[in-house]
Amino acid sequence: MAGLARGCLVAALLLGIWEIAVRLAGVPAYILPAPSRIGLALWLNRGVLFDNARITLGEMLLGLVCGAGLGIACALAMATSPAVRRAMRPVLLVAQALPVFAIAPLLVIWFGFGLASKIVMASLIIFFPVASAFHDGLARTDRGLVDLGRLYGAGDLAMLRFIRVPSALPALASGLRVATAVAPIGAVVGEWVGASAGLGYLMVYSNARMQTDMVFAALAILLAVALILFALVDRALARLVPWAPETGSARE
């Protein structure tokens, strides 16, 4: 609660400076609207913003589930088979190195303007941090635990199920936190390229009409949705992986 209060205080201070600077400088609203004007746009268009936020949130959640599931499956396959690991490493690098902006138009052509292209784009962004973090955790299992499992006659599958996967769950949790933080990117980029609804579509629509206050209002809603989703996922992961507590300095 103390951290939340400090964050709210800093945000209020920055918004106050923004408001005063815009008013004193006489900046036109179509270039940089004041926070009060953005707040008014939020209130007057709350119905439209809420409807589009639901669509974007659905795309984020589906992309998170699909991308995380694909990343987990890929990491497990790489951990169990050296041949798969050698084959998948270039794929992981390509998935990370290729900008989603570059392939977004192609994905829209292949999967259409509907939900599918947005889910694919979000999954591509989410896939790498989950697969990379989980595979790294699986590859760095404590050697003592591995030797103990071998001593008791555990096979490869039993070793993976009872030793390697539980040991790698904190790494997977870190990857999922990163994936949750970047989940909005894929959904919004897809809506920018081609969509008929969503916060990204609303930004493009408003920007083309010089309604900059609506662009900022959509950004504010997107930020709030992303922060709430991250907080929920972070809290769930903390409960699911209780044997990897944070230190006091890390929490601060």
Question: How would you describe the overall organization of this protein?
Answer:
84% of the residues lie in helices and 0% in strands. By secondary structure, it is mainly alpha-helical. Helix 3 packs across helix 9 and helix 3 packs across helix 10. The C terminus is likely disordered.
Topology of this protein?
Blueprint: H1 2-25, H2 35-44, H3 46-80, H4 82-97, H5 100-111, H6 115-139, H7 143-151, H8 156-193, H9 199-208, H10 212-240, H11 248-251
Question: Which structural traits does this protein have?
Answer:
252 residues, elongated, mainly alpha, disordered C terminus
Could you tell me the mean pLDDT? 83
| CA radius of gyration | 22 Å
CA(first)-CA(last) distance: 12 Å
Shape category? elongated
Question: What would a concise description of this structure say?
Answer:
The chain is mostly helical and 252 residues long. The chain has helices spanning 2-25, 35-44, 46-80, 82-97, 100-111, 115-139, 143-151, 156-193, 199-208, 212-240, 248-251.
